[in-house]
Amino acid sequence: MIHAGVVQMEVPSPEDVASRWIEKWNVDVREHTGESDGYDLDVELPFQHPRLCLDAILLVLPRIPSDSADRHFQVLAAGPLEDLLVHHGQAMIDEIDVLARRSPSFRMLLNGVWTSRIDSAVVERLAKYRSAQW
Fold first, then answer.
1. Start-to-end C-alpha separation, the chain
2. CA 113 – CA 115 distance, rounded (Å)
3. Nearest CA-CA partner of 92 in 49, 127, 43
4. How far apart (Å, rounded) are the C-alpha atoms in residues 36 and 65?
5. For the segment 31-56, what is each residue's pLDDT rounded down to a tens digit?
6. Do the Cβ atoms of 122 and 90 come closer than 8 Å?
7. Is 103 helix (H, G, I), strand (E, B) or coil?
8. pLDDT at 132 > cutoff 60
9. Is residue 30 predicted with pLDDT exceeding 60?
10. Which of 83-87's residues contact partners 24+ apart within 8 Å by CB, and which partners?
């Protein structure tokens, strides 16, 4: 679709975003091009598409080891999830709270988020799930 000279890509499915993210982080970091189609889980989604971002995170999670030593797990926590909480934590806190309560792997992922830029009310609400920060 083209509007005023700008090419707009179809919005990818959460499955496509999750698969692309896993593939991206399977290659050596030095090989990353830095290019984005506008729907990168590390770049635009946490800022501009919070619903798609969270849905993709939830699809990545069961496909990677829930281990704080795993590179994918580390990047997912300190990247997309952290940025999502920074920019949309207030709006998504109810759902994040339910996910943390129900999912041990999501709760562990929350422990890898650095909270310094996250709204204090969001941090306070999630504190009960963050007893094992890494």
1. 44
2. 6
3. 49
4. 26
5. 556 667 778 999 999 999 999 999 99
6. yes
7. coil
8. yes
9. no
10. 83/46, 83/47, 84/45, 84/46, 84/50, 84/53, 84/54, 84/57, 85/113, 85/115, 85/118, 85/122, 86/46, 86/117, 86/118, 87/46, 87/47, 87/50
Instruction: State which H helix or E strand residue 2 sits in.
Output: strand 2-3
Q: Amino acid letter at 84?
A: L
Q: What element of type H or E holds 124?
A: helix 120-126
Count how many Cα atoms sit within 13 Å of the Cα of residue 116 in the half-sphere of its side chain: 2
Residues 33-71: b if buried by 16+ CB within 10 A, e if exposed: eeeeeebbbbbebbeebbebbbbbbebbbeebeeeeeee
In the chain, what are the domain boundaries?
12-26+37-129
Q: Quote the pTM value.
A: 0.87
CB of 101 within 8 A of CB of 68? Answer: no
